[in-house]
Amino acid sequence: MLKSRGSGNRNDGQIVSESSSVWTPVRPKGMVPIPSGSFVLGQTDYDFTKTNDAPVKTVTVSGFFMDDTEITNSEYKYFVNYVKDSIARTALADKAESLGFDPLNQNPGGDDGIGAYAYISGSEDGEGTPYDEYMRQVNTGRDGQNPINDRRLNKKIPLEWDKYKYPDIDYAEAMEGLYYPPEERMNGQRTIDTRKLNYSYVTVDQDAAIKRKGTFRVDFRKEFNLNIYPDTTVWVRDFNYSYNDPMHQDYFWHKAYADYPVVGINWNQATAFCDFRTRYHNDALARKSKKGKAVKVISYRLPTEIEWEYAAKGGLENAPYPWGGPYLTDDRGCYLANFKPKRGDYLEINDGKKTGYMYTAPIKTFRPNGYGLYDMAGNVAEWTSSPYNRSTYTMSSSLNPSISGVEKKKSVRGGSWKDVGYLLMISSRDWEHKDSARSFVGFRTVQSYPEGSKVNYRRTK
After folding, report:
1. Do β-strands 31-34 and 57-61 pair in parallel, antiparallel, or remain unpaired?
2. Which intervals of the chain are annotated as region Disordered (predicted)?
3. Short-list 339, 392, 421, 433, CA closest to 46
4. Residue ranges of domains in the chain, CATH in brackets
């Protein structure tokens, strides 16, 4: 509605801005705010490798929210379970449609069998609308089928996973297709076929849009469909002649590792998780708000390499490590991160009594930096959104530095449990191929917020 200056809601023909004070950023759970600021980017301490791929440069970075820990196994399972739920409901809806259940005429939930899981209209009550009928006619003439663009899955009806409680034989047939076939089962165990846990989403090809490589919007549309289940074999594949089979068998799914950082995730999967987290948050807000009143969140994403380095410093200047430095232990001789302290020694032995961690450690085991971020050094290295290039720091702008591109190498920062102390230094740069999953690489997400937003910053001693 147009507003007029000094006239309340009366329209007197004058246009005024809607006050932005009605919206303030809400700190997402598990995230901490990183204030905007300038800092000295690059290698300010010893360059033991003599690569000099991080020359010193002063840059300015906008503020953002950042996960205070790496994404854990339990958090990533939200993603896996969401996809598992979606493919089950899609299989049931497709089966119901093949049996003649019409989403335009069916009463949602009015059938005790598979009909209750049929597609429903995108309308608020799930019933068919004139728009649905119009889209049916348009698409029928186009491809001979009857897809309804605005239809959706009926998520109000709970799924039944107990095979002995399936409501009818059609339901059983649709659900059985989600599991490994009998000839592929181990010891007769009926488990979900993880090869079918695929997530689809669409983004804009910004590079193509900037370069005007296209005329229509569809020319800049990038559609992804990828498997999102972690590669649990990384524990065996990454280390030849090491007995890591227990980690391969238990690390992702066992409850004992719920608060450990997820690994075996490649860059594409980490990016898909960001899209899921945005969609999941927006869906929750839409359910809680009044019709048409939901305000979408700013998208979650991976941090740029420069944002990661800025956040890792925790507000300290010329600090080689997130806790300052120059040592890897505190004044009591206790190690400050999870890493490989000595040749052949992967345990951080503290005061002769408490043993360290051979592999990853639970989140928040070690102290946070000044911004309240845990494990910005050690535990697992972390994916960033930035492509890796040795000349990145030289080529990038001094204002919110970022390098775009489609390089297969992506920057990985922070060092990990299997790395020596040098790779824990804030300015140490590393990379992995974007389609590679590792037992020592995880990720955390960020969310931007507008400059000048009212955000409470807290510094940790």
Report:
1. unpaired
2. 1-22
3. 421
4. 32-72+268-448 (3.90.1580.10)
DSSP secondary structure letters along 316-359: -SS-SBTTB-S-SB-TTS-BSS-S--BTTB----BTTTB---SS
Give the separation between CA 35 and CA 88, rounded to whole angstroms.
Answer: 42
CA distance 172 to 167: 8
Read off the DSSP letter of residue 120.
B
Q: What is the residue-level pLDDT of the chain in tens, covering all 461 positions?
A: 444 454 455 667 888 776 655 567 889 999 999 999 999 888 876 655 556 677 788 899 999 999 999 999 999 999 999 999 999 999 999 999 889 887 665 554 456 789 999 988 877 777 778 887 777 777 665 544 545 566 788 888 999 999 999 999 999 999 999 999 999 998 888 999 999 999 999 988 777 777 776 677 777 888 999 999 999 999 999 998 899 999 999 999 999 999 999 999 999 999 999 999 999 999 998 888 766 677 889 999 999 999 999 999 999 988 899 999 888 888 787 889 999 987 877 777 665 556 688 999 999 999 999 999 999 999 999 999 999 988 888 888 888 888 776 678 999 999 999 999 989 999 999 999 999 999 999 999 999 998 888 887 766 55
Pairing of strands 37-41, 57-61: antiparallel
Q: What is the DSSP string of 264-304?
A: S--HHHHHHHHHHHHHHHHHHHHHHSPTT---PPPPEEPPP
Cβ(379)–Cβ(419) below 8 Å: no
- What are the C-alpha distances in Å from 129 to residues 110, 136, 141, 178, 293? 18, 11, 19, 32, 21
- Tell me how far apart the alpha carbons of residues 314 and 309 are, in angstroms, rounded to a whole number: 9
162, amino acid identity? D
Structure tokens at 198: 């695929």
